[in-house]
Amino acid sequence: MIQILPSISIIDGKLTRLKQGDYASETVYKDSPVDIARRFADCGVKKIHIVDLDGARKGTAINFHVLEDIVGHTKMEVDFSGGIATDGDISKAYEYGAASITASSLAVSNQKQFASWLVSYGREKITLGADAFQGKIAIKGWQKKTEIDLFEHIDYYHMRGLKYVKSTDVAKDGIQEGPNFEMYKEMVTRFKGIHVLASGGIRNIDDIKRLEDIGVKGVIFGRAYYEGNLTLKDLETFIAQYS
Q1: Residues 6+ apart with CB under 8 A from 132
Q2: Interval 130-162: pLDDT, tens
Q3: The CATH number of the domain where 182 resides is what?
Q4: Which of 8, 97, 106, 178 has the highest count of CB atoms within 10 angstroms of its CB?
Q5: Domain span at residue 64?
Q6: How many structural domains is the chain composed of?
């Protein structure tokens, strides 16, 4: 079964969604992150993805209290991302209850350090965030574009034992036009043994099923749920067929 990972993005402790990583396009939702997490847990979701948007923009993780609240009020595992840049950040994330972390910017600025994390913390607990705009890596909450080729970037860490990669086509994020299926198909084909987590553009259960057929191991979504296109009933029914 493809892993279902709802995304909870945080600015100032509040549930917030962006469109294509644009902080000027933020939508703040009235529901608390904990309330949303509980709903996902009730329909059978086992793990969620938290994005500390403040941390991603500032380069240091900030919203650990949200992580702590969700872990304290649900039994779900949490993958924490956004501004993870030091061993101290990772230690703090684990201290507040994270089961794993995703790092993006550090994997560009300090390849040696990120590669060392795969060894010191274990490849089950470290996910590479490899988000791209027009095939080139974007970092710092997608505010900074690079000239680094997406597939070359993944390959570098694939050769060093990487198991999990979360990848978003930035151009597809938050616009509800569907994910970049061809990009994920190429990843699955090229990187045997890597678990690809698709993020960005997910519209509905049909998109999730298609990604599963491609061989993607996990799917991360946000706006599709928050705008009512992907319901808790949809998720519950999908998850139940594998139980």
Answers
A1: 138, 150, 167, 168, 169, 170, 183
A2: 999 889 998 876 667 889 999 999 999 999 999
A3: 3.20.20.70
A4: 8
A5: 3-240
A6: 1
